[in-house]
Amino acid sequence: MNTLQTQKDEDFIERSRDTILSLGYDFIVFKSRAKKSLTTLKKHITSFHL
């Protein structure tokens, strides 16, 4: 019984770790896209004012 619980715990930890890693990756991708959009927006605003 104890080994079954340990296996369940390990599976849960593994799934949690995968979820956290995938969320972290999505966040990094989102951040880099947001940064690019912001840079593009700044260029448009600057060229508009000139």
Detailed description of the structure:
The chain is mainly alpha-helical and 50 residues long. 96% of the residues lie in helices and 0% in strands.
Which descriptors apply to this entry?
96% helix; rod-shaped; 0% strand; mainly alpha; 50 residues
Question: What's the structural blueprint in terms of helices and strands?
Answer:
Elements lengths: L1 H48 L1
Q: How would you summarize what this structure contains?
A:
By secondary structure, the chain is an all-alpha fold. Helices cover 96% and strands 0% of the residues.
How would you describe the shape? rod-shaped
Q: Rg from C-alpha positions?
A: 22 Å
Averaged pLDDT: 87
Low-confidence stretches: none
Category by helix and strand content:
mainly alpha
Largest sheet, described in full? none
Q: What is the first-to-last residue Cα distance?
A: 73 Å
